[in-house]
Every structure is written in C-alpha cells, then in structure tokens.
Amino acid sequence: MKVLVTGATGRLGRVVVPRLREDGHTVRATSRRPRTDPGVEWVAADLATGDGLADAVDGVDGILHLASAPNRGTHEVDVLGTRRLVVAAGQAGVRHLVYVSIVGVDRVPIPYYRHKLAAEQVVAAGPVPWSVLRATQFPEFLDDLLRMSSRFGPTIGDRAILAQPVDPAEVAARLVARLAAGPLRGIEEYGGPEVLRFDEAVRAWRAARHSRRPLLPVRLPGRLGRTLRDGGLVTTALPKGTRTWADYLADTYGGTTRR
Ligand SMILES: NC(=O)c1ccc[n+]([C@@H]2O[C@H](COP(=O)([O-])OP(=O)(O)OC[C@H]3O[C@@H](n4cnc5c(N)ncnc54)[C@H](OP(=O)(O)O)[C@@H]3O)[C@@H](O)[C@H]2O)c1
Predict the structure, then answer these.
(1) What's the gap in Å between 12 CA and the centre of ligand 1?
(2) Rounded to 5 degrees, what are φ and ψ at 225?
C-alpha cells in the first residue's frame, strides 16, 4: 500500500515510518517543515491551515493519522485539522484512515482528551472508511511526567493512580496491522503488559536512576482523581504489548546515575 503518515516526526511517527517500510509499504509522510530523509516521500502540510493536505492525500491507499498538538491550538489542529484531513482524503478516494487516540478519552476529564474524543467523532462521521486505535501512555511520557513532578525535590503524585505504559514500537506494529486488516469502523484499545500504581512506577524509576528522592503523596481531588484511581487510563483489551516499564527503564537508565 501507499500510506500517508501524519505526525511522522513525532515520538510515535518515528517508529511507525520504519515499521511500514519493513512491511513493504511505500511511505509518504507529513511535517510542517520541509524534510528530505531518504526512503520516504515528505510533503509539507499543516493541519491548522489545511496547507498541503490535498497534495499529501493524493494517490494514497491508506492514512495513519498521528499528528496532534496537545499543548497549543489543540482544537484547531486535532479537531478542525482532522476534519480538513478526512474531507481531503474523502475527495481523494482514500480507502482506510486509522486514527490513533488514547485509552480513557471517553472518561478522563482532561481538556486534551476532550479534543481527542471530538477528533475520533470527526473520523467516524467522515467519508473515509476508518478505524480508531486507542493506546495507553508511552513510557517516555510517564518518564517526562515523573521528572516534571520531581522539579522541586521529592516526586509529587497520587500513589493510587493506575497507568499501563506501552512501548510506541509495539503500538506502531499494531497500527500497521490494523491498517492492513482493513476498516474496523470501530474503536480498538491497546495497552502495555502491566497495570502499575503510581507509587510502584515511581519506585522502579527511582531505583533505575539511583535516586533517593522521596515520594510526596498527594490525593488528586475531584472527578479527575477518582477516574485516574479507578483505572480510567488502563484497558483490559487483548492482545497487549510485551515491553514493560522495567524494560524501558533498563534501556534508558541502565548503567547510568541520574538523580
Ligand atoms: N504520548 C503518549 O503517551 C500517547 C499515548 C497514546 C496515544 N498518543 C497519540 O499518539 C499520537 C502521536 O503522539 P506523539 O507522542 O508521537 O506526538 P508528538 O511527539 O508530540 O508529535 C506530534 C506530531 O504532530 C505533528 N503536528 C503538530 N502540529 C501539527 C500541525 N499543525 N499540522 C500537522 N502536523 C502537526 C508534529 O509534526 P511537525 O512538528 O513535524 O510538523 C509531530 O510529528 C498523538 O495523536 C497522541 O495523542 C500518544
């Protein structure tokens, strides 16, 4: 297949592109900036304006839609930009669009998730046969979060929150398989191999970094805290990934000392 990847420069996109190529697909990829890496046909496109989208979708069989702007302009990029993409893809006769979303977008009250859910609905209502794959958190995201939560010394967090980190390379493999299997016209979930409490995740993180930072427990209030403690971010869906939080920590911090 000739496959367009939006968000190809991102954390997930960087492992999706080689995976597609390994499986014998021809890859076209978008970024807002011009790029020229070999083996990939790059198209400059911006979901916020629609610039470049008609060229990006022209002649492709399928789309893996990964691009997202969680921090700024999320409605414009994720919701309206997704609408611009599906309209262009419909006009170009694209046969399957797979949208990557996040486990919990339909229950965890975080503004970003509201936009992701709205984008899922845009995909489902659009003219292109579709699938949605909701993944749990990437371990890099949890790692970033723990570093941020430790800025002032101790690691601050609600120890009963549940997480289920999943390796982006395993999500990439699942996305490519989903694309090849054809439109689901539905939502599939994919999570990591184990559900961890926040305090367990912190303990392993501290050990891997040879850190003696204490955990300063707080109780996240309200519906957000309740939903996160009740497993709003985790899934029982099978199959699941195999690479654990401990595997990620060993790869990232093995043999080093970082506090
Ligand atoms: N991080 C997680 O734990 C996690 C878990 C489950 C699902 N997801 C989902 O997986 C997807 C990829 O996540 P990620 O962590 O790989 O993201 P990321 O590293 O933040 O990358 C974001 C990508 O979006 C592109 N982008 C941003 N604004 C754009 C715009 N206006 N027009 C076109 N492209 C734009 C960027 O491309 P350029 O800067 O090159 O233009 C970049 O490639 C997202 O949809 C996210 O919601 C993430």
Answers:
(1) 7
(2) -60, -45
Q: Which domain holds residue 122?
A: 2-135+167-190
Tell me, yes or no, whether 145 lies in a domain: no
3-state DSSP call for residue 102?
Answer: strand
Given a contact cutoff of 8 angstroms between Cβ atoms, the answer to whether 168 and 15 are in contact is yes
Q: Which residues of 142-167 are buried (b: 16+ CB within 10 A; e: fewer)?
A: bbebbeebbeeeebbbbbebbbbbbb
Ligand 1 centroid vs 217 CA: distance in angstroms? 31
What averages of pLDDT result for each successive group of 10 residues across the chain (259 residues)?
98 98 97 92 98 98 98 97 98 98 98 98 98 98 96 95 98 98 98 98 96 94 98 98 98 70
pTM value? 0.97
Which tokens sit at 205?
């993180």
**Residues forming beta bridges with residue 129, ordered by sequence position:** none
How many structural domains are present in the chain?
A: 1
Which among 19, 57, 68, 101 is the best mutation to test ligand 1's pocket, defined by most ligand atoms within 8 Å of the CB? Answer: 68
CB atoms < 10 A from the CB of 107, how many?
A: 15
User: Which residue CA neighbors atom 17 of ligand 1 most closely?
Assistant: 10
Q: What is the CATH number of the domain that holds 127?
A: 3.40.50.720
